[in-house]
Design a protein that fits this description.
Helix content: 25-40%
Number of helices: 13
Strand order of the largest sheet: 3-2-1-4-5-6-7
Order of helices and strands: EHEEHHEHEHEHEHEHEEHEHEEHHH
Number of strands: 13
Largest sheet: 7 strands, parallel
């Protein structure tokens, strides 16, 4: 079987990482999988690009300009929305023609337009589309926050400068409605929470939606010796280490402000003296002033160079604090568990599939600073067996398990097309 996984980027972003890991897993289990991207970032022979990087960049700029103009020349939320107005026809590529299954992932920002997706559907090839965020069933946004317009009809979009009855979100919503009305697409959500949201939407409520989580490359996320790991990063041996990381540490959605408040409570209630704790951050920071609100000693390591360093950092830490306002899956949760680090996160999104409360992590009441603080305290005081933590997550998310689920799905939809 030949499968073509389609994603805008090769490595940048959670969806790219998930699609890349799935490609490797499939290739290791008898499937000839390739990944089609806008631009190659590595020398991986299984990854191919469209061959028109200039065309992709032009599409990207044209689409951003249309959003910029529609939003009354405001940069606010310029990258929080996508309209899929410009893209590339991939149906003429040899990789597309030789594929038995087309597997779409995150295809925004000038890679595929709605017209291009329609061409893919009309090609007659079986199509799987994995949802990595909410864009497929909203008008234009990737995360709806508290807005529930997608359940009926998108308009008066809170992300637009001048929302209205027939604003940009309504325009794209109507186009998606026509696209999906008769489309034979097998949708996959990476968590039950995301699947439930999709099933409540007016765009996808009549579609078949399965749940298959992201894969964990178990050989790349391993437990390391704690003292050696701390010495590698120059971290103290006599402190409790709380870990917080994201591609963009200052992304509001990642919840650093909630973590700061929770740490304040931990200190004010005298559960710990602040000098007993250390907050370790990794990832990019474009607004360094956000660090001023951290109430305990901290260190920022920036970007880590590879999974081996990330494994060492998880292993060096006592708690992985993940106060995200919402996550469609929770990749950092399973990475932390695989390295024996106890995760603390909020309920209300994809992490609920992963954590069994007070067994292999802590699920704090949604956006409750008090409960998140209690979760950190609980995690620091527990004697959870790191080996058991790793064994449990590997059992559910290893390459063989996830690849088998997708292979079963591919076989099923291929038989339906016969």
């Amino acid at each position: 079987m030949r499968v073509l996984l389609v994603n805008t980027t090769e490595q940048k972003g959670g969806a790219a990482i998930a699609a890349n890991r799935l490609m490797v897993a499939l290739n290791g289990h008898g499937v000839k999988a390739k990944m089609l991207v806008s631009r190659k970032e590595t020398a991986n022979l299984s990854v191919v690009e469209t061959g028109s990087n200039w065309r992709y960049r032009l599409n990207f700029l044209k689409e951003r300009m249309r959003i910029f103009i529609a939003n009354k020349f405001s940069k606010a939320n310029l990258f929080a929305v996508d309209i899929a107005s410009d893209g590339m026809d991939i149906t003429k590529l040899p990789e597309f023609k030789e594929a038995d299954v087309i597997h779409l992932h995150w295809i925004n920002q000038g890679f595929l337009s709605l017209k291009d997706i329609a061409r893919i559907i009309k090609s007659g090839k079986p199509v799987v589309w994995t949802l990595h965020d909410m864009w497929e069933f909203t008008g234009i946004c990737h995360y709806a926050d508290s807005c529930r317009q997608f359940m009926t009809e998108c308009h008066y979009c809170p992300l637009l400068k001048s929302p209205g009855e027939r604003d940009l979100s309504y325009e794209i919503f109507v186009r998606k409605l026509k696209l999906f009305e008769k489309a034979n697409v097998q949708f996959v959500a990476v968590s039950n929470w995301l699947a439930d949201c999709a099933r409540q939407s007016s765009l996808l409520r009549n579609q078949n939606i399965q749940v298959i989580p992201n894969v964990l490359p178990v050989a790349r996320y391993v437990r390391k010796e704690k003292i050696a790991s701390r010495e590698y990063f120059g971290l103290p041996l006599d402190k409790k280490i709380i870990l917080f990381g994201a591609v963009k540490v200052d992304d509001k959605r990642k919840g650093l402000a909630y973590l700061n408040q929770a740490l304040c409570l931990l200190i004010n209630k005298k559960h710990y003296d602040k000098d007993q704790l250390l907050l370790v951050l990794f990832g990019d920071i474009k607004q360094p002033e956000i660090l001023e609100g951290i109430p305990i000693p901290y260190t920022h390591l920036g970007f880590l160079k590879d999974d081996d360093e990330l494994s060492a950092l998880y292993s060096a830490s006592d708690v992985a604090a993940i106060p995200s306002l919402y996550e469609t899956f929770g990749q950092t949760v399973i990475e932390a568990q695989a390295c024996g680090c106890v995760p603390v996160t909020f309920t209300g999104s994809g992490q609920m599939d992963i954590i069994t409360h007070r067994q292999d992590g802590y699920l704090a009441e949604y956006l409750s600073v008090s409960d998140f603080s209690q979760g950190i305290k609980w995690a620091l005081e527990q004697d959870i067996d790191p080996a058991a933590l790793r064994a449990n997550v590997i059992r559910k998310y290893n390459e063989s398990v996830i690849a088998s689920k997708y292979i079963d799905l591919y076989n099923q939809i291929c038989k339906e097309e016969e």
